[in-house]
Amino acid sequence: MAAEAGLLKLPFTHDDQLTCRMRLRFQSLQQRNLRPQDGEKLLQAHEHVYRVDFSQQHNLRFLHWDIQLETPGKVTVTGTSQHWTPDLTHLMNRQLLEPAGIFWKKAGAREVECNEADAQEFGERVAELARIRKVMYFLLAFTDGLEPAQLKASIVFKA
């Protein structure tokens, strides 16, 4: 996990099971012609659930995001603010962290760009939340032709 001494690079892992479960919730509501709970966040077709497992929880200092996009497009990374037990509770809009990290790659560009201030603040909030949890869930929204298979993402901390 650590490429260099003192660095902790934690990868984002696609949670296929949870993404599927959340899509079933959406389908179930549609089939029964029901409305979601007030404030409930339903997973859209371009959104997927990822997780980061913290092998170390304390004394983490956010350094940077390591986002690699194989093709041009945009990914929005939104964290969840509380312990989220997907089997027992639905994802509510109020559980989504602000700001989100928005990363994009333009056609012909080699580097991924982002809003540095938002990405920095978001990374620092993740480091704070790592102190109280071993796993954190993220909602990733892929747009402009980008697909999950074209993403490699990690968050890097100084441990």
Automatic annotation (TrEMBL):
This is OMP protein. GO terms for biological process: sensory perception of smell; signal transduction. It comes from the Eukaryota. Transmembrane segments: none annotated. InterPro entries: Olfactory_marker (IPR009103), Olfactory_marker_sf (IPR036727). It holds the Pfam family Olfactory_mark.
